[in-house]
Amino acid sequence: MKNEFISYYIVIAKKEVILSAGAINSPQLLMLSGIGLKTVLDDFGKALILDFTCRITSLPKSRGRVKLGSNDPLTNALIYSNYFAEESDIQLLIKGLTIGAKLSRTNALINKGYDLITDLLPGCKSFTFGTEHYWMCALRTNTKSINHPVGTCKMGLYNDTDAVVDPQRMIYGIVKFRVVDASIIPVIPRGNIIVPTIIIIEKGADMIKNKWQKS
Ligand SMILES: Cc1cc2nc3c(=O)[nH]c(=O)nc-3n(C[C@H](O)[C@H](O)[C@H](O)COP(=O)(O)OP(=O)(O)OC[C@H]3O[C@@H](n4cnc5c(N)ncnc54)[C@H](O)[C@@H]3O)c2cc1C
């Protein structure tokens, strides 16, 4: 799109601004607005409004990162998933896989006709099935995302240096600016995230109504 076709508007919010663009686009829009990591914003020549050093991060132990790809709001943000950056995450999964393999050899499962498929996975054919090195290879070459990003604008108490928003979903350091989407989930849940996301949004809607219906 050429610049001459873009219209610019100044919009004044009488009550508050609610950002609900999702776990990837909410941090992107914040960073485009000069709210984010100083070191990242410096690279894009952004006037810094608020420095959230270490605050735009996600995932337990291994932490991913969402960064600006460019100053253009119409280009995609850069997503660094960073799976297994922390060795403890991979060790935990190896323990789980080892337990699962053991379970497959119990009479209870054998009698039900269960059989563990021991075909070597692509990329791991030089390893012996079931060894720690095999599981490590299987995890590093076959792990995929199932589209559940969270925690890029983490909710937390003021003394939590990773927190971007407070329990009312208001951005620390900025007045009347609320984030209401999956980006505020502090840690990745064990299951799929649409239900916790809906709960967060419903609760957020109640907070907004409670605040403004009274005034
Ligand atoms: C393919 C796929 C399958 C999934 N399957 C499941 C599943 O089976 N079960 C489950 O629990 N979860 C599933 N999820 C995850 C779940 O859908 C998301 O995690 C959930 O929607 C998270 O919501 P969010 O808050 O990140 O915002 P989103 O749902 O991403 O909503 C953000 C909204 O903001 C809009 N937006 C973004 N930027 C702008 C902008 N600049 N201006 C205006 N609007 C903007 C977007 O168009 C979007 O409508 C799936 C996700 C994907 C991608």
Automatic annotation (TrEMBL):
Residues 22-36 form the Glucose-methanol-choline oxidoreductase N-terminal domain. InterPro entries: FAD/NAD-bd_sf, GMC_OxRdtase, GMC_OxRdtase_N, GMC_OxRtase_C. Belongs to the GMC oxidoreductase family. PANTHER family: GLUCOSE DEHYDROGENASE [FAD, QUINONE]-LIKE PROTEIN, GLUCOSE-METHANOL-CHOLINE GMC OXIDOREDUCTASE. This is Glucose-methanol-choline oxidoreductase N-terminal domain-containing protein. It comes from Timema podura (Walking stick).
